[in-house]
Structure formats: C-alpha cells, structure tokens
C-alpha cells in the first residue's frame, strides 16, 4: 500500500516547517529562559518556547494544533462532507497544564477536557472521529501508525495524524528532580550532555492513499511499533530494535535502503548511548551507514509531537538533499562514534529513504520509514 | 475480515461490585511491584489479572502468550491527582520532597505501560485519553491493531481512580474493566463477536430484542465503554435467549460511540 503525505504543518520554537528546517541548517537553537513557572522551584532554567511568553494563554497546545490542522487540511484539500476523515492526536502532556493551574491557583471554573477533540473540530468541523492517544514521547508516531492502518484497511479516506504539547509544571519538576544540576541545552549524543529540556509545539500530517491525483512527493512506507515491557524509564535495546525491524518488515525494505536517520536523541544519560548502540547494530554490516541527525538540540523535546516533527524535517532533508546538523553536538559519546553523525554544518545526501525514531516513557517505541519519490 | 472476538472480560469495581479498593490491590496482585503505583493502575491491573484468569499473587513476566500481545488502555483522569500533588510540592518549594519514583506517574501513559511491564506484553502499547468516548475508542484502536496484523491479541482496559481531583473533574465512579480481543474466525462457539465501533453526533438506538448497555451517558469516564462492553459480553453468554447487544458511551460535548456485539457459533 502506497500512503502519501498530502498536507502537513508544524509549529516549533523556530517557526513553521520551512523556518524550522532553515534554522536547523543554520545550526540555530530556539532555547530561551523558561517561562510561566518558577525556575528555581522546578530546577529547570531553560525551555524551547513558542512565543510570545509575556502571558501564558489558556489551552496553548490546542491553539497551535488547530492552526496546524487547518493549514495541513487546506494543503490536502480535505472536505469532510465528501471524505471520511479521521484525526488521531498524539500527545505526551495533553492539556494537563490547565488542570495544574486550576488546582494550584484555586480557580473555580473546572477546566474543559484534557483531550484535543475540540481543537481538531475547530479546524475541521464535520470530521468523523478524533482520537487522542497519550503515548508519551512517541505519541505522534503512534498516531501515524494508526493513521496508516486506517487508510490501509479502507476505514478512512484521509487521516490527520497530529501531535500537540505545551510544557506542564509537573513534568518540568520531574526533569528538575531527577537531574543532577540543571541542563543548559539539549545536546544529543554529546559526551558533555546534561539532560533533556522541553519544547513547545504542534504538528499535523495528512495521509491518504497515493494515487494519480496526489501530487505529493512524500510516502510513508511503514511504521513499526513495539513495547519494551521492561522498565518504565530505562530504554531496552531489544524493544527499540523490534520497532525498527517491524517498520522495515512492514515496508518490505531492509535497513540498507535507508540513507538518513532522524534519531530520537534526547540528550539524556540513558537514551543516547542505548539508541546509538542499537543503530550501530542495525546498520553495522554496511561499509557506509546512513547519515544520522536529530532535532531536539534546536527545538527541545517536544514530547508527544517530537516524532512527527522529526518526520517533517526528514522530509525536508530528503527533498532538498541537505541534512541539518545536530545542534548542540560537539564531541560524540563513544557509543555513537561508529555512526555518521551530522555535526557543525549541513551534509549533502542523495538518500530517498529515511528512518525516523521515537521512543517514550514506559518503553513505547515507534519507528517511521519515509520515502521521497522523484 | 472486519470482526474481532471477545475471548475474555472482567470488571473490577470497588464501588459497585464490592471489590477491595485500590490500596488493597495486593490481595489479588501480591505485594511486590505495587509501591508508587497509581490507584488507576492498580485497578487496571486487577481487571487484567481477573480477565486472564490468573491465580491471586505475584505474576512472573512474561506470562504465557505475552509476546506480541497489544495493550490498549483508556483513562482520562488516571494521573491527575499525582500531577496536582507534584505541583503543590513544587509551589511549596519542596521539589526534593517529590520522590523520583513518581516521575513515570507524571506521564499519562503510565496505565498502559505498567500493564505491559507486569505481564510482559511486547505488542503495540496505546494509551487512549479521548474523553467520554475513550473506552470504545480503545476497543476501536485494539481491533485496528489486530486487523492490521500488528497483534494477534489485544488486552483492552478502561480505568478511572477514586480521588478528589478526578472526582471534581469527572464525577465518575472508580472502576476498571478489561476486555481481551482476538481475531474472529472459525472455532468452537459460542463466542461474542465485536462489530466495528462507530462514532456519531447522536446516540445510536438498538434494534428490538437487543440488550442495551448505555443510553444514560452523563460522565466523562474513560472506563465506561470498556466496562459496558465487559458487562455486555458476559450477559450475552449467560443468557441463552440473547444474541445481540448494543453498547454506547459518550457525551454531548465529546460525541457518541457505539458498538454492536453478537453471539456467534452454536450454543451448547
């Protein structure tokens, strides 16, 4: 089954898809002082916010999502009165920020729902179905897996796979609590990495059955899923590998077909060496492995949105033949030395297939394979 | 093949079914591994344990057939109390007083991942937080995983906790339920086949003679759809004259979901 991306949009600390890709190529970072919470109380000083940050709006993630869905739907020409359209929203933190503020500020009005049904319907009135999947840091990639299955099985004509997350005080606190000092930046695969920081954002990707009428150059060849069933916070190599193998098997491809990897790369003590070792094992028998990059050094860890944001950056890299460097990476960890990490400046590529990793709390893994057609 | 069959189901409901509350989950699950587990997680584990027919006490993972089994959980308020507790401590300048063991509970998918870890389920793992239709959305997603060849079996769970924050947000009652789905196919009957879940702006109405579970949608519990499906599946097999049931859940704000359950295969 050929599944085409017929529309897409994202909002990150660095802007929309084109702006974010341009900033990544230039090695820019969207980091700024953490807003909206007391930095000392959560022991986190920086974040990758979407501005403005003078006043914290209500339902920020929902607002970004509505904008992304509207933009992607126009690109794809979606018409809910003629097409069976479904949206699946992946999120790590839902609209939990509203619950936090309601509780801590003793507000009288109970917050509206934590899910994103209303946010999608605001952009796509008449949509058949909106499902919110709260699958931690791989949520939007899980949403894409379900989206592809809905198209494959003929249950929908078009599916909008989405991600949406605004920072929550509780998650910031846990990052501040488990870290030693505080992190000054996300530095994926770097020997001197200090840990993860959060980013704001939303993303929407419309998938449809590829046909003569679709002009899109991008194809989702397969999305592999697995669960470590091992440990709630520590990644487990067999689980990561299982999701990668599932993706290639579903696509009828092999790892040697991929010329680009957009890694999960969170800049944490545990993820980066584990992911690097698994990638080294997967591509180990090749004389020249794929280029490896990642986006979290520039836009932070955008939680549930991260997977599809990586996917859209992979799409830009494949279409333009330029892979952005990993912002914040200077000296790779030993585990990542066998990999062709993109450092300092953009690297040219003639790749047509990219592997996009996303791994989440609880050992939930999703790996997407994205292809550009000529 | 669009159908899937329900091969097991169970309800664990401290309020209505007389089951021990979440803080006594060890009576069914054994003591080990329950420290720092959310009440919603404990109730969910109890429902799974019961649906799988496991003996009381600690289970050694992976259980038989666990590899490749998917988990799809639904909960809207599973961790809201913990999130608010963390924020209270933060704003009291007591970050060090928050246990690092609470870190995973700040992530809403703690229910689905805890089930996978306890029983060794390595198939796709989904946490549905979809509002009032969440329970049936979970069954819908689980059926999709089976039809799409991603899993041969899916453990579907709905759960909501009994705490002040959840109560203020939802008004629902604490309960959990588990429904186990497998691919429908020829085999000894009778069994309950689950037809595709449908979403609509309006509540569905049942055909004459069908059993009806739902119709009084009023809460935002993510457990409701699974609870009603578990009860309906049990009732269909218990009542020789019943062949069909309609299960619905939802709300005016979130829309409605419905599923038709049908007894297939010959009755003994």
From TrEMBL, chain A:
Classification via Pfam families: ketoacyl-synt, Ketoacyl-synt_C
Key word Chaperone present: no
Domain Ketosynthase family 3 (KS3) per the UniProt entry, residue ranges: 1-372
Domain of life, source organism: Bacteria
Family statement drawn from the similarity comment of this UniProt entry: Belongs to the thiolase-like superfamily. Beta-ketoacyl-ACP synthases family.
UniProt source species: Actinoplanes sandaracinus
SMART domains: PKS_KS (SM00825)
Keywords: Transferase
Protein name, entry field: Beta-ketoacyl synthase N-terminal-like domain-containing protein
TrEMBL record, chain B:
Coiled coil: none
Keyword Plastid: no
Keywords: Transferase
Record's keyword annotation contains Hydrolase: no
Pfam families from the UniProt entry: ketoacyl-synt (PF00109)
Domain of life: Bacteria
Protein name, as recorded: Beta-ketoacyl synthase N-terminal-like domain-containing protein
Species assigned in the record: Actinoplanes sandaracinus
């Amino acid at each position: 089954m050929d599944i085409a991306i017929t529309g897409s949009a994202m909002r990150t600390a660095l802007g929309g898809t084109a702006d974010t890709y341009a900033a990544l190529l230039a090695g820019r970072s969207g980091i700024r002082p953490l807003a909206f919470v007391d930095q000392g109380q959560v022991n986190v000083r920086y974040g990758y916010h979407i501005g403005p940050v003078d006043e914290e709006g209500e339902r920020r993630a929902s607002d970004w999502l509505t904008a992304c869905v509207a933009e992607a739907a126009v690109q794809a020409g979606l018409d809910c009165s003629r097409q069976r359209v479904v949206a699946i929203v992946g999120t790590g933190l839902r609209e939990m920020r509203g619950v936090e503020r309601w509780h801590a500020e003793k507000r009288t009005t109970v917050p509206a729902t934590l899910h994103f049904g209303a946010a999608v319907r605001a952009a796509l009135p008449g949509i058949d179905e909106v499902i919110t999947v709260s699958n931690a840091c791989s949520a939007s990639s899980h949403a894409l897996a379900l989206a592809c299955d809905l198209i494959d099985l003929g249950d929908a004509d078009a599916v909008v796979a989405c991600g949406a997350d605004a920072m929550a005080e509780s998650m910031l606190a846990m990052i501040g609590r488990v870290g030693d000092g505080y992190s000054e930046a996300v530095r994926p695969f770097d020997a001197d990495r200090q840990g993860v920081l959060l980013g704001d954002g939303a993303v929407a990707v419309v998938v449809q059955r590829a046909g003569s009428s679709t002009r899109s150059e991008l194809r989702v060849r397969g999305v592999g899923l697995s669960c470590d069933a091992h440990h709630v916070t520590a990644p487990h190599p067999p689980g990561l590998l299982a999701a990668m193998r599932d993706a290639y098997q579903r696509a009828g491809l092999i790892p040697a077909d991929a010329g680009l990897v957009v890694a999960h790369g969170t800049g944490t003590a545990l993820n980066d060496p584990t992911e690097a070792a698994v990638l080294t094992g997967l591509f180990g028998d090749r004389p020249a492995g794929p280029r490896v990059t990642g986006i979290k050094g520039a836009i932070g860890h955008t939680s549930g949105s991260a997977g599809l944001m990586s996917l859209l950056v992979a799409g830009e890299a494949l279409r333009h033949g330029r892979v952005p460097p990993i912002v914040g990476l200077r000296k790779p960890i030993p585990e990542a030395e066998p990999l062709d990490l993109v450092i300092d400046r953009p690297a040219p590529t003639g790749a047509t297939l990219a592997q996009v990793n996303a791994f989440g709390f609880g050992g939930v893994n999703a790996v997407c394979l994205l292809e550009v057609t000529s | 093949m669009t159908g899937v069959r329900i091969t097991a189901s169970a309800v664990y409901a401290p309020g209505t079914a007389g089951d021990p509350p979440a803080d006594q989950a060890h009576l069914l699950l054994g003591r080990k591994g329950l420290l720092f587990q959310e009440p919603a997680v404990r109730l969910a584990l109890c429902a799974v344990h019961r649906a799988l027919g496991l003996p009381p006490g600690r289970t050694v993972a992976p259980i038989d057939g666990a590899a490749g089994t998917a988990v799809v959980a639904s909960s809207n308020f599973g961790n809201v109390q913990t999130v608010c507790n963390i924020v209270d401590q933060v704003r009291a300048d007591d970050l060090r007083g928050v246990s690092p063991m609470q870190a995973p509970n700040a992530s809403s998918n703690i229910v689905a991942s805890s089930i996978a870890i306890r029983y060794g389920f390595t198939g796709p793992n989904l946490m549905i937080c979809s509002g009032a239709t969440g329970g049936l959305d979970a069954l819908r997603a689980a059926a999709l995983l089976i039809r799409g060849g991603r899993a041969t079996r899916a453990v579907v769970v709905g759960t909501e906790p009994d705490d002040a924050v959840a109560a203020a947000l939802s008004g629902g009652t604490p309960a959990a339920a588990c429904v186990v789905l497998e691919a429908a196919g020829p085999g000894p009957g009778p069994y309950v086949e689950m037809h595709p879940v449908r979403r609509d702006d309006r509540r569905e109405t049942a055909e004459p003679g069908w059993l009806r579970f739902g119709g009084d949608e009023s809460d935002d519990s993510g457990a409701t759809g699974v609870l009603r499906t578990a009860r309906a599946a049990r009732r269909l097999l218990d009542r020789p004259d019943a062949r069909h049931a309609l299960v619905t859940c939802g709300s005016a704000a979130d829309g409605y979901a419905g599923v038709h359950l049908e007894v297939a295969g010959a009755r003994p």
